[in-house]
Design a protein that fits this description.
The complex is a heterotrimer of chains A (about 325), B (about 325) and C (about 270). Chain A has helices spanning about 50-55, 80-90, 100-105, 110-120, 125-140, 145-150, 160-170, 190-205, 215-220, 240-245, 250-260, 265-270, 300-305, and strands at about 5-15, 20-30, 35-40, 65-70, 75, 95, 175-180, 210-215, 225-230, 235-240, 310-315, 315-320. Chain A is an alpha/beta fold and about 325 residues long. Chain A has an eight-stranded mixed beta sheet with strand order 6-7-8-3-9-10-12-11, with helices on both faces. Chain B has about 325 residues and is of the alpha/beta class. Chain B contains eleven helices and twelve strands. In chain B, strand 4 and strand 5 form a beta hairpin. In chain B, helix 3 (about 110-120) crosses helix 4 and helix 5 packs parallel to helix 6 (about 190-205). The two termini of chain B are about 40 Å apart. Chain C has helices at about 5-20, 25, 60-95, 100-115, 115-125, 130-140, 145-160, 160-170, 175-210, 220-225, 235-265. By secondary structure, chain C is mainly alpha-helical. The chains are: A alpha/beta (about 325), B alpha/beta (about 325), C mainly alpha (about 270). Chains in contact: A-B, B-C.
Chain lengths: ~325, ~325, ~270
Amino acid sequence: MTAPLLKVDDLHITLEGDGTSYNAVENVSFEIGRGDAFGLVGESGCGKSITALAVMGLLRRPLAIGKGRIVLDGEEIQNATAARLRELRGSKIGMIFQEPMTALNPLSPVGRQIAEMFVLHQSASWSEAMDRAEDALRQVRVPSPERRIRDFPHQLSGGMRQRVMIAIALACRPDLLIADEPTTALDVTVQAEIIDLMAELCAAKGTAILMISHDLGLVANMCRRVAVMYAGRIVESQGAEAIFATPRHPYTKGLVDSLPRLGERSKRGRQRLREISGVVPSIAAYPAGCRFNPRCPSVTDICRSAAPDVTALGDGLVRCHHHE
Amino acid sequence: MSDKIPSKLLELDDLAVHFHVGSALKGGVKTLKAVDGVSLEVKPGECLGLVGESGCGKSTLALSIMGLQPPTRGNIRLNGHELSARDRMETARTVQMVFQDPYASLNPRQTVRRTLADPLRIHGITNKTEVEHRVMDMMAKVGLRADRADRYPHEFSGGQRQRIGIARALILQPKLVICDEPVSALDVSIRAQIINLLLELKDEMGLAYILISHDLGVVEHVSDRVAVMYLGRIVEQGGWQEIFEDPRHPYTRALIAAIPDPFHRADAKVARAKAHGEIASALNPPPGCHFNPRCPMKADRCISEMPALEAVAEGHRAACHFRNSVA
Amino acid sequence: MKWGTSTWVGGSLVAIAIGVAVFAPWIALTDPVMDANLMNAELPPSWEFPFGTDAQGRDIYSRICYGARISLTVGVVSQICNSLIGVTLGLTAGFWGGWWDDVVSGLTNLMLAIPSLVFALAIMAILGPGLVSLVIALGLTSWSYSCRIARAQVLSLKSQGYVQAARILGYGDFRIMFTQVLPNILGPLIVIATLGMGGAILAEAALSFLGLGIRPPFPSWGSMLSEARDQIRAAPWLSVFPGLAIFFTVLGLNLLGDGLRDILDPQSQTRRA
């Protein structure tokens, strides 16, 4: 049994604010194998993005890793030095963000920003790096890459910028690519292309993907396994198709049922969408017991008093007192 | 028997909105054809879904219908009367809008009560009891607690703010409401609440909607008829079932193909329907059919000749040279 | 309402200044103009004369009390005038755009290019010295800053949903400007106004210094400073006390302005749980 590329074990992330310490993320555990595609799904505020930042070692005050282990390729990195983390970022872990405009340096031509990766991590010379940068742009299917390497980020469209980000992230063939809402800011047709591109490139280079999004459909399409987060905890984890076909946690079920899906109305007429009542709780006011209990249609007393443990089910897990 | 009630609530006739960008000193004046020859109709009580991505002109179109953006060409008729001739106040009582961003679309210094009551007063309803009654009634209709009327927007969640926005749009009892991406900025788990609410209110108050959205799932669920826009023109238009089950324009097919499919049910044919490349700028649209650089079916004719929006079936029109052979 | 410490401090200072101005006849020890006794010229602070006496033998403390009236009047009235002009011009220019915006922007640029003090000087030269001309001159020459800020704020707010919503709902232009836009841009405008009041007080000092403001024997903090300039080493109390009076009043206005801006923003008051 080969060891996983990334193993996150009982991760807790704390948030300091107003004199108290909040648990932004609690008891998060998952594994990603080499070349695998794993998705982390949840709404804003559920903690998925800061989990990714923790893996990259990018948490800053007031956030910090409370406890838990992050093991990358056999090496524990949750307490790694800043220097070691810098080495890892770019060479072993690449990351792309939602807003390429803010992630790219507006004052530097995009070719140079890609070339920097080769210079920093692979001791290449600048001229060699620029050639490889042009190659990288070609790989991400930017037309006329020999001209584009001199363009500045603002001269490119959103989709182009995201391709540049992918080129930067994958430049040094990292083992793991973390993509945090990479297509949320893009148009639908461009989104489809970027996702296909990412999947293709990662398959070709053997790069594993950790995909973070609020769009369950998108993640389930791209990833092999999916974990759903709610209010700082993983509430369910399953294979991608299964999580859509047979969701086990009431929250996942609610999400799957509540969104109108193409083709449903033709089959069954217009059904009233099943709502999830209530609102996403804020970190300062997480409910006691199961955090989903105020909104859960199957809530009982135990849900309000005791936080459910994780139950392993088949090839996944679920955190619910009343799971299917 | 013809009576005074027009059969069409809204009629757009070859509407165009062009902007002049740049100046003679800065490299010449260019024309941005945000909306370029759009003809549409909305019947009372109907929901028209308007689909399109960035640069398609849907927002400019919405502003024109509202009377906020004067058209360069063509006319807009509300209830049979041309828009330009109408009073701003009368337009306000007929067409209203629900905005995308619940955080920016409410005045942060006004209580809910004032946000809802002021429009009534401006339109001549000065009787205090009646104003109060209508405000409370509307709050109840959109699912807001009456005791929160004196709170400020920042005290509400995103979904609740959107409800306030909806209440504000409906307080004057309009006949047509333009909903511009009403749920895109909301958390996924509460979108269903707002979609259901919009549908309920439509039935209850006899409203017509123009729903602008890039989310095809929502559009299919809510709309009676659908129009697809690309770079300022309508490329396909028809009933919801026709558009989603038998799309005749490659762009519509590309939009449908782009929806992530967790069950991998899509076959190779759908995969081939995907568009490639980036959306062109409305400042420099490609010659001929604007979609040609990205179209999987592109032919020479597409570069030289702009296809017209013509019928493929009763009530279903597409602007593609291959509209009848797209299978 | 929750006031921060600095707001309390600022508010207190301003309240003291206003109190001194209002109750001057009661708290002053002597008549600031008439009680001049050359025998008492330039005496250092003592029990009889808490702040000392000036070159004419007048009690500085009393002159400061009465001087508060002049300085505060000049500061407040001229700044209100400036704000009214600047905000109205900036608000309408930003909202309507077009030729009106061009006119206002051109005018603003002109005003900003000419040092306001020089402009005020020119007006004073025409109107002659005195309190009224001072207020007019200062009130008509420093509006460009608030105009520019108001215009910039309006431009950024114009595309906000609620401004568009107001137009769609049938609100008239002026109603939108004054009920929707203005309340949301008050923050920076208030800060500018309080800074401006301080500036006006200092401008008064400068003009009086040049002999164009308040003429002797009437007391104003500025003219007192002016009269004391030759004696800074020999009789420091002649300049220190008027200087401190100006300092604390302007400081108080600035702190108060900051605090008011925070108070007027409903979002800083309550936080949703």
